[in-house]
UniProtKB/TrEMBL annotation:
<dbReference type="InterPro" id="IPR019734">
    <property type="entry name" value="TPR_rpt"/>
</dbReference>
<keyword id="KW-0802">TPR repeat</keyword>
<feature type="repeat" description="TPR">
    <location>
        <begin position="220"/>
        <end position="253"/>
    </location>
</feature>
<dbReference type="InterPro" id="IPR011990">
    <property type="entry name" value="TPR-like_helical_dom_sf"/>
</dbReference>
<dbReference type="Pfam" id="PF13432">
    <property type="entry name" value="TPR_16"/>
</dbReference>
<dbReference type="Pfam" id="PF13181">
    <property type="entry name" value="TPR_8"/>
</dbReference>
<protein>
    <submittedName>
        <fullName>Tetratricopeptide repeat-containing protein</fullName>
    </submittedName>
</protein>
<dbReference type="InterPro" id="IPR051012">
    <property type="entry name" value="CellSynth/LPSAsmb/PSIAsmb"/>
</dbReference>
<feature type="repeat" description="TPR">
    <location>
        <begin position="84"/>
        <end position="117"/>
    </location>
</feature>
<keyword id="KW-0677">Repeat</keyword>
Length: 289
């Protein structure tokens, strides 16, 4: 009995914190952030939102000829100026080629040259995740947030990791809200938060964050994420528009093209069983583990 007096239910405290942060987000949207008038600079990183979207590692395969040509170009830059940014560029190239061990070595070289390099630490975390070394990846995310508590991308990417690997929606929600406190213009974080809200029956909040996220044009991954959530909520016209924007940003993206075709087909013929659609399998996440 005494234990309960001194140690209250932590889950209730966590819920209260999340509600406070969501109320802050609604106030920000009403004061102009939804119109894109807020600051775009990321706290503690010096990177703009547009830079961050380009930094987001692509899983799109890279042709052999393109890979060799780009690698030669980057290696020339590295030999003339061993800048950590050049090593990070090399790591991104190796990542796109699927050479994760080589990508990891390049990032580690960048971190040797510049130990205080949150972008490099973030990319290392994502490489470990891609290599199915999930325990190491999670520790890397946690270390990054501890070392750089003002780096908003760290909260977003760890939240994405928890959603995809552990289905911990509540914890991910709190992390995304914390990241958006630091950078309210992070479109990817808004899209992830909208997905959580859509899955948990909070459609009004989901639409609010999708409206903010979808104003950041020109990124295929972002538009696909928004389109997926619109589709889950049965808003097929909005979903089709997001997949169309994804194709405009990357006309060769076969996944976005097939998603757009599917939405248009379902609009014409009526909705079928969503359980058969691979990219909607996380529509009913399990509880936190």
């Amino acid at each position: 009995m005494l234990w309960a007096l001194f140690f209250p239910d932590l889950s209730k405290i966590r819920d209260k914190i999340c509600r406070i942060r969501y109320n802050q987000m609604e106030r920000w949207s009403l004061h102009g952030f939804i119109e894109g008038r807020g600051g775009i600079e990321m706290s503690g990183s010096g990177m703009t939102l547009q830079h961050d979207l380009k930094f987001y590692p692509s899983d799109k395969p890279l042709a052999e000829n393109d890979y060799r040509r780009e690698k030669e170009r980057i290696l020339r830059k590295v030999s003339s100026d061993p800048n950590p940014d050049h090593y990070l560029e090399l790591a991104q190239l190796e990542y796109r080629r699927g050479l994760y061990e080589e990508s990891k070595k390049a990032v580690e070289k960048a971190l040797q040259e510049r130990p205080d390099f949150p972008e490099g630490e973030l990319f290392l975390s994502k490489i470990l995740e891609k290599m199915d070394r999930e325990a190491e990846a999670e520790q890397a995310f946690l270390k990054l947030m501890e070392r750089h508590p003002s780096y908003s991308c760290a909260y977003r990417e760890y939240a994405r990791f928890l959603l995809e690997k552990k289905e911990q929606t509540h914890r991910a929600e709190c992390l995304l809200l914390r990241g958006l406190e630091l950078n309210p213009q992070d479109g990817l974080a808004h899209a992830l938060l909208a997905e959580i809200y859509a899955q948990t029956g909070r459609e009004r909040q989901a639409v609010l964050h999708l409206r903010i996220a979808s104003r950041r044009d020109g990124d295929t991954y972002l538009h696909q994420s928004c389109g997926k959530v619109f589709f889950q909520m049965g808003k097929y016209s909005e979903a089709a528009e997001q997949f169309r924007l994804a194709l405009m940003a990357d006309p060769r993206n076969k996944t976005a093209r097939s998603q757009l075709k599917l939405v248009l087909k379902l609009q014409r013929k009526g909705i079928l069983s969503l359980a058969k659609i691979p990219w909607l399998r996380r529509s009913n996440p399990a509880g936190e583990r």
